[in-house]
Write a structure and sequence with these properties.
alpha+beta; 2 domains; 8-stranded mixed sheet; 3-stranded antiparallel sheet
Length: 204
């Protein structure tokens, strides 16, 4: 086992902002304590600074259905399936906002759904070798009856289509070869597969 209280030395020798827009790209030169003892030689790394975000599993326990969304993602354009991905409602936590504020806002903006019974699932780093991005994952109760249509904030370039799926189908889509092929929805479907029966009991 590793000692989570073991804080090793880290010396930042240079920290340059290479680009700043919606995201910020920095080039960092550093030296860190090694497992064998002593310090590493100077290492240069690029890091993409991204703000903390939340994602929400929209689950209807009565109908045993999920409300998911489809939208274009620039990072997916090189994927064989193309740039449109099947994912969860999600949004960036702005200054002064709580996770619950963001969950309620984004669920309405992106899926047209009011939520209740918001439950925390996990918070994790997405790709710490390259980015500071962290996502807090939640599950919320929704009524999937009548959910559908196209949503999003036009001023933000959003073009989002709602996809209502049975829980069985959504979980199956997270398996190899399925339409769910991005990090957070895969984690979400694996969690739901384990916790689905509990939610159906608790939320009925």
């Amino acid at each position: 086992m590793t000692d989570r209280d073991d804080r090793r030395r880290l010396d930042v020798l240079a920290d340059e902002v290479m680009y700043e827009g919606f995201f910020r790209l920095r080039r960092v030169t550093l030296s860190h304590q090694t497992f064998a003892g002593g310090m590493s030689p100077p290492i240069r790394r690029e890091v993409l600074d991204m703000r903390r975000a939340i994602a929400v599993i929209l689950y209807d326990p009565v109908r045993d259905e999920l409300v998911m969304i489809e939208q274009f993602r620039i990072g997916a354009t090189a994927h064989p399936e193309g740039g449109w991905v099947l994912e969860l409602v999600a949004g960036i936590v702005e200054a002064g906002e709580s996770d619950a504020d963001v969950a309620h806002r984004e669920s309405m903006e992106e899926a047209g759904c009011a939520i209740s019974d918001l439950e925390f699932v996990h918070e994790y780093m997405v790709a710490p070798a390259a980015t500071t991005e962290r996502i807090a994952l939640y599950v919320a109760r929704v009524d999937a009856a009548g959910a559908g249509g196209i949503h999003g904030v036009a001023a933000e370039g959003e073009d989002i289509r709602v996809a209502v799926m049975s829980a069985d189908d959504a979980i199956a889509e997270a398996r190899p070869g399925g339409r769910i092929n991005t990090t957070t929805p895969i984690i979400a479907m694996q969690w739901l597969a384990v916790n689905r029966a509990r939610l159906r009991t608790a939320w009925r």
